[in-house]
Amino acid sequence: MLNNKDLLGIKELSVQEINLILDTAAGFKDVLGRDIKKVPALRGKTTVNLFFEPSTRTRTSFELAAKRLSTDVINFSVPTSSVVKGESLIDTALTVQALGADFIIIRHASSGVPHLLAKNLNASVINAGDGTNEHPTQALLDAFTIQEKKRKIAGLEIAIVGDIMHSRVAKSNIYCLTALGARVRLIGPPTLIPENLKAMGVSVFHNMEDGVKGVDVLIMLRIQMERQGKGFFPSTDEYSKNWGLTPERLCLAKEDVIVMHPGPMNRGIEIVSEIADGPKSVILEQVTNGIAVRMSVMYLLSGVKR
Amino acid sequence: MSKELMNKKDLDRALTRMAHEIIEKNKGTSRLCLIGIQRGGVYLAQRLAAKIQEIEKKEIPVGSLDIALYRDDLNIRKQQPVVRRTEVPFEVNDLKIVLVDDVLFTGRSIRSAMDALMDIGRPASIQLAVLIDRGHRELPIKADYVGKNIPTSLRETVEVQMEEEGVEDRVTIRKFESVEGKGAE
Amino acid sequence: MRIHIQNGRIIDPSQGLNTIGDILIEDGKIKEVRETIPPHTPLGKRGRRGGNSPDTRIIDARDMIVIPGLVDMHVHLREPGFEHKETIKTGTMAAVKGGFTTVCCMPNTFPVNDNASVTEFIKRKASQEGYCTVLPIGAITKGQKGEELAEIGTMRKEGCVAFSDDGQPVMNSLIMRRALEYSKAFNVPVISHSEDLSLSEGGVMNEGLLSVTLGLRGSPAEAEQIMIFRDIVLAELTGGKLHIAHVSTKGSVDVIRNAKKRGVHVTAETCPHYFSITEDAVKGYDTNAKVNPPLRTAQDVEAIKDGLRDGTIDVIATDHAPHHRDEKLREFDTAPSGISGLETAFSLSMRLVGSHILTFSQLIEKMALNPARILQIDKGTLGVGSDADVVIIDEKKEYTVESHKFISKGKNTPFNGWGLRGMPVITIYKGKVYEW
């Protein structure tokens, strides 16, 4: 049983809730392996994808998840909406709800926007990434993938590499994986890993070789090119030389290490192609699992009493 | 206040008879498979399969089916049912499926199960085996094999306990205090 | 018309008064303050008698505290230009409700109060519609752009009592130096909104673990401290009068404390929210807790209290910053900063007395006498002959903050639902009585 009608972040979930979502996702993964990849569970419900930031991957994944659960899906994207006409966020959201949305999948560049909508709407609000706060379904699908590959999460050494400070994926992953008992390391330049993050029960490495040593799982984050101009690191080239994942560095990890990336990748910058496409990569499986996890979230939220 | 309807021995005898009936009606076990509905039906399907194997000396495929996502009451339930695994590790196309459940009541679960099966493939036929038929059908569904017919009132609930869940085999009937306590199927 | 306040505990730090007594008000001025003023005492030049005379209003202030009207040297009245947020009328009504009889309004209106005609407009509007004294604060630079000095002298003559680019720190150190130098000619303080914009870089809350976990851009305490230090050094260099607005961090208190020890002409204010709540109020993305400078940590709150206790911080001002509901009901990043503070300030500050950080008398110093002294205005006192701005406080009265009942148009407060104790029950402004 989930306790809230919305999925705002991993912070807001209990360990039991996280496990329920992961366990339920396994059932949905079965469905995705069939010829008929659709179940009638949420027939008659309406899902609105409200994306204020461009995203093909997450939006498509949610759209498929919603359709596989038999809900009707509307994509309400910024360029075609009245948002450009200066309508306030809350008016847009109320309009979407008035259209009959049962689920509102929201992505927005400002942290806390899903929380604002959740407070003001009856629909179930699912955070598909807000600012630099959280991207909970990404963390859940990552945990699901790790669990599938490693049969457990507790006790694993998991490293997250890159721009931790600005990464909602990293934040959600830190909450989720530490809650499930993993030992999480953060690797990257000091400008991108705030000192005070250590208070969250993680260890911090500024040297890639030291950080990669002996890990079970490597989660590589996308480096945003625009950070370069803001003085977080001098150039992508220098970043790549110091924190990019290369075969030599990968050798320092455990033999059976798996490599993950939330996508889209900057090949040759944070990860080289031979790793991304290599046997240790589970990047494409993450994509498939994303649909199962999102179906699980929507299914479970639909049962929460209002 | 509960009353025992079947004990361990009764249950075993009923299953043995049902196994014979299944074999008889299907003229053997050719292209036959058993699929149990989560959760009670899964254990019953496994036991029936073991008995059939004992009798016919042939292994028959057994699967489990979760019907949570096919229920017709998802919109009105107080909380969503737990989603369990559907494991049918064989092609169902052109097979004769015997669907196995513990208690047949309104028939709605069976309707859901048939929908779920159809999404997995196109079986040659579907038959229904239940341990208990307690009446009160709300849909035109009838069991092909019945362990025991038990007339009940809507104020009663039938519980099937099985060793696989760590308790002794036993079927009991219990009266609900309130009218809303319409027995679970 | 006379008003005779009887048997109240009169607390007036300007005269060192803390005694049970009476106050007699006549023609909008304080006529007499003493232990008991007998009703039959001949008072007026025509031999009019007090007390039982029909044109004398008796106010029984037994068990009440009688103080000079409070002076708020930092409010935003939003007029002209942003009348949907607040007007001079509604803002001064809220002030009177909160026990303030003098408010100083910041220049970030539209147009900006950077010239005498805007100053004149505000003064005229206030005299027509205001419920209390409104003293404008002029902009330091034209358009608050931080580039060219505004006509400080002309605005001073029109009625501006201080100068500030509040909300828009003067980033150019040379301009700030010039402002502190030039203002000496008119003997007015320059009020610094201390924030290094390049360091705060669009921060919307305090920088720390919480800003990281909420994914909100943080503004470090150092962005405030650095600018305070710069302005203090410039005040030392120029000998100008510097007042630091809304001090919020421990580091800032330390810097100011040191400067005062060195004898620099610097005064400082803080606001009730900086000693009442911490950054935790932002959790859940409550835009009503978005304020600039941002709410800080518990350690900072303690340091602010220390600063108030030892006199490093001279003034409690509200930084009353009303906003329309729609403006706050939006993304945390883009919601405007500010708290509607006039109607909760006194009760929140009373908590300092309850927790023995300030005596009641010291509280009145910080909320009436000190701001009046800094601005060199004849307010914040119950001295005979001064304006009859008097507030009667029921220190035991308990109530719950209900923002929808605010008189101010701005209902934006993080204190909604708080239970508070002690509030003004009567405010007398120039002899006119408001009670609730």
Would you mind describing this structure in some detail?
The complex is a heterotrimer of chains A (306), B (185) and C (436). Chain A has 306 residues and is an alpha/beta fold. Chain A contains eleven helices and nine strands. Chain A has helices spanning 15-32, 57-68, 89-98, 113-120, 136-150, 168-179, 208-212, 236-243, 247-250, 273-276, 283-301; strands spanning 46-51, 72-77, 103-108, 124-130, 157-161, 183-187, 203-205, 217-220, 258-260. In chain A, helix 6 links the parallel strand 5 (157-161) and strand 6 (183-187). In chain A, helix 1 (15-32) crosses helix 11. In chain B, 40% of the residues are buried. The model of chain B is unreliable at 181-185 (pLDDT under 50). The two termini of chain B are 19 Å apart. Helices cover 26% and strands 27% of the residues of chain B. Chain B has three helices and eight strands. Chain B has a domain at 31-152: 3-Layer(aba) Sandwich (Rossmann fold). In chain B, the strands form two sheets. In chain B, strands 3-2-4-5-6 form a five-stranded parallel β-sheet. In chain C, the strands form three sheets. In chain C, strands 1, 2, 3, 4, 5, 16, 17 and 18 form an eight-stranded mixed β-sheet that branches. Chain C folds into two domains: 2-66 and 386-435, Urease, subunit C, domain 1; 69-375, Metal-dependent hydrolases (TIM Barrel). Chain C has helices at 88-97, 116-129, 152-158, 173-182, 197-200, 209-214, 221-238, 250-262, 272-276, 298-309, 325-328, 345-354, 360-375; strands spanning 2-12, 17-26, 29-34, 56-60, 65-68, 70-75, 100-105, 133-138, 162-164, 190-192, 205-206, 218-219, 242-244, 266-270, 315-316, 390-400, 419-429, 432-435. In chain C, helix 2 (116-129) packs parallel to helix 3 (152-158), helix 4 (173-182) packs across helix 7 and helix 8 packs parallel to helix 10 (298-309). With 436 residues, chain C is α/β, with parallel strands linked by helices. Chain A binds chain B through residues 1, 23-24, 26-28, 30-31, 34-36, 38-42, 44, 69, 296, 299-300, 302-305, and chain B through 66, 68-71, 74-75, 77-80, 82-87, 115-116, 119-121.
